[in-house]
Amino acid sequence: MKNVEKSIERDVFRIMRHKLKGKNSEVELKCWRMVKISKVIFSRFGVLPYQIRLKHLIWYFDVVMFWDIEMPASTQYRYYLAIKGFCECVGTWGHWKGHFEIRRP
């Protein structure tokens, strides 16, 4: 399981690290949030970051973020921004934007 977790971390950083703009610390935080999201998606679907599709992210919004009572709204919004950054890096934000703005915290 450790090899898979390292692979998820490496893939997310490879996808997002140099495409996001901003301070290095903010970019790194956004990448780590997406790593956490990717690990949850992997545990449910067995999908690595390069294989994440719209249905996986919608599941994360609807099930994990909606039902997690301990997650405050500000944290939910930060995770929304991490997902938005991931989609922008992959090049799918233009197509998936409407699905996420409905669910935005």
Description:
With 105 residues, the protein is an all-alpha fold. The chain has one domain (2-103). It is 76% helix and 0% strand. α1 (2-16) crosses α2 (24-45) and α4 runs antiparallel to α5. The termini are far apart. The model has no long low-confidence stretch (mean pLDDT 92).
Largest sheet: none
β-strand number: 0
Beta-strand content: under 5%
Radius of gyration: 13 Å
Mean pLDDT: 92
Number of domains: 1
End-to-end Cα distance: 32 Å
Poorly predicted runs are none
Helix/strand layout:
Blueprint (H helix, E strand, L loop, with lengths): L1 H15 L7 H22 L8 H14 L5 H18 L2 H11 L2
Helix pairs in contact: 1-2, 2-4, 3-5, 4-5
Q: How would you summarize what this structure contains?
A:
The model has no long low-confidence stretch (mean pLDDT 92).
Q: Tags for this entry?
A:
about 100 residues; mainly alpha
